[in-house]
């Protein structure tokens, strides 16, 4: 492994680990504040936010573990490295966020059905405003760090902070609007505003974890990635070389795990192909590798060249 690549990899791992540690510290602070004040003012919305923080603490700890392990070199047991851990943890995080949203929606509907309860609107607005400031700062911090090292792990963690910011902002706005309503409306909404906000916000934010879960499990199931997929570029480059190199057919397969693409290219050549010696075959591999340079993800490339149709796209029974 080149020294420059190893140093770059270590630097990116350090950024990821530092960012996840900051997330854990802030999550602990947010959880303590929301659960304590939520019980004090009897607000389901703040308690739901506290549950968000609690699950975020678990997912941030898992994220820190992944950030530490994923940079390790491959072993005889994990021959392709630990890249699979990133979509696995992202999927677990998404599932936890999904469970919280469903729980919040059900809990809010149950609160409305049971007649609701009166909460201290000023207290909820105060803690929501503080949560907005902290969450927004974390969104900016996570976004910059994720863009710097192109980390899906940090992007997923950033989504959780976006959800918390949006949840807190919507809660602040909802209770502010309630506080400026005429007194006649106060009597009508006093017992239902907290439960209604909990159910409504949970339903709105249900779509973000669904997206995270679907993307993560698509990677775990080795489905062709929708983003950062170099297949079309490789196929186009090979199509231009068919006549020059005597290529009959070619096949490209791409799977994605975390921030790495695993690319397999199979090339079937004719009897008169110029790809008859190792030097020309390696030159073709270099050309294919060059098409991957514009992709923001790391790549692992395997190129198979054969003149036997039985090995055209990997030999299979039959």
From TrEMBL:
Protein name as catalogued: Cation diffusion facilitator family transporter
Localization in the cell: Membrane
Record key words, sorted: Membrane, Transmembrane, Transmembrane helix, Transport
InterPro entries membership: Cation_efflux, Cation_efflux_TM, Cation_efflux_TMD_sf, CDF_Transporter
Membrane topology label: Multi-pass membrane protein
Gene Ontology BP annotations: intracellular zinc ion homeostasis
Keyword Methyltransferase: no
Domain of life where this protein originates: Bacteria
Coiled coil: none
NCBIfam families tied to this protein: CDF (TIGR01297)
Family according to the record: Belongs to the cation diffusion facilitator (CDF) transporter (TC 2.A.4) family.
GO CC terms, sorted: plasma membrane
Residue stretches making up the Cation efflux protein transmembrane domain: 21-221
Transmembrane segments: 21-40, 46-70, 82-106, 118-141, 161-181, 201-221
Major localisation: membrane
GO terms of molecular function: cadmium ion transmembrane transporter activity; ferrous iron transmembrane transporter activity; zinc efflux antiporter activity
Lineage, uppermost ranks: Bacteria, Pseudomonadati, Pseudomonadota, Betaproteobacteria, Burkholderiales
Pfam families the UniProt entry points to: Cation_efflux (PF01545)
Signal peptide: none
